[in-house]
Design goal:
Helix content is 38%, strand content 17%. The strands form two sheets. Strands 1-2-3-4-5-6-7 form a seven-stranded mixed sheet, covered by helices on one side. The protein has 304 residues and is α/β, with parallel strands linked by helices. It is built from eleven helices and 13 strands. It has one domain: Ribonuclease Z/Hydroxyacylglutathione hydrolase-like (Metallo-beta-lactamase, Chain A, 4-Layer Sandwich), CATH 3.60.15.10. The protein binds zinc ion (ZN). Zinc ion binds next to loops.
């Protein structure tokens, strides 16, 4: 648990028992908000950390989700039970997956195979506990402080960022990229919805919000948001273009696509340290990038 400026506390969810994989943040105040909640297997870790901060069972007001991938939202049902006054805030496209999580959980299990139990599932959230955040929706934290939802498609269509305008802080989810274990910032481009055009537009829109601090979900505040946006843009642009070109010459060949993508924007920097390599390989994140880009190229080929 790390206390940061602006009454923001970061909790490491210890996903897969590994520190520095996935973090969630608490914005303190009259009506405290938890931003993302980690995988279901992290529910007890996050609950206990909230209690240790003095946020009792009745005290948590909001659980705000950046998107409904299980490493970000899987604990939501368990935490909704542990904090009965908390309202869950989610993108319009994400809400139904919280009420009826079977499809989301099964899709994730298919993707992660024998790693799925490490991620866990998702306990359904009663519909009455959910608020749908349209673009611009404001979550009131008390004392005039708000978190503004900014729809941020690309990584997924149900993805949004949260802006704390007063503090100049952006919680950017997975839009910018991932930075773990001392490696470089590097994109997260998962199936089934990754879309490079939407992702690049999102990066421009988020950068224009002018935040001076940006948190990435994996795992923590970036050193310099301007540089992070720049790198995220260059990386996703190069990788998206390489994927499209490869799919045109060798449709259906995921391995060839990934070789082309690696040549265009190598992952070496992201996995440069042993600590980074452990985190990147724990859930086969690079394979997911290959599948996300292949899925995008295939979708585009079908609709061309
Ligand atoms: Zn995600």
């Amino acid at each position: 648990m790390d206390v940061h400026p602006g009454d923001i506390t970061q909790i490491d969810t210890l996903l897969g028992g590994i520190p520095g994989m996935t973090c969630v943040q608490v914005v303190q105040g009259e009506s405290p908000a938890l931003i993302d909640c980690g995988a279901q297997t992290s529910a007890v870790t996050v609950r206990d950390a909230l209690h240790a901060m003095g946020i009792g069972a009745d005290d948590l007001a909001w659980v705000v989700l950046t998107h409904v991938h299980l490493d970000h939202c899987g604990a939501v049902g368990d935490l909704a039970q542990a904090f009965p006054n908390a309202t869950v805030v989610v993108h319009p496209r994400g809400a139904r997956h919280l009420v009826e999580p079977n499809r989301l959980v099964q899709g994730t299990a298919a993707l992660f195979g024998n790693l799925a139990p490490v991620m866990g599932g998702l306990l359904a959230v009663p519909e009455g506990r959910i608020v749908i955040a349209e673009d611009g929706h404001e979550v009131a934290l008390g004392g005039g402080r708000v978190l503004r939802a900014v729809h941020a498609p690309g990584h997924a269509r149900h993805h949004m960022a949260l802006l704390d305008e007063g503090e100049g802080v952006l919680f950017s989810g997975d839009a910018i990229g991932v930075q773990m274990g001392g490696g470089d910032l590097y994109p997260s481009l998962p199936p089934p919805e990754y879309d490079v055009d939407a992702a690049l537009e999102t990066l421009d829109a988020l950068e224009a919000l002018g935040a001076t601090r940006a948190y990435v979900s994996h795992a923590g505040p970036t050193a310099d948001p301007g540089e992070a946006f720049d790198q995220g843009r260059r990386a996703q642009s190069a990788m998206g273009q390489a994927a499209r070109e490869s799919w045109r010459t060798a449709p259906g060949d995921v391995e060839a696509l990934w070789q082309a993508v690696e040549q265009a924007w190598p992952s070496d920097g992201a996995i440069a340290t042993p600590e980074a390599r452990i985190r990147w390989t724990a859930f086969n994140w690079l394979d997911n990038n290959a599948l996300g880009l292949a899925g995008m190229a295939e979708r585009e080929a079908r609709t061309a």
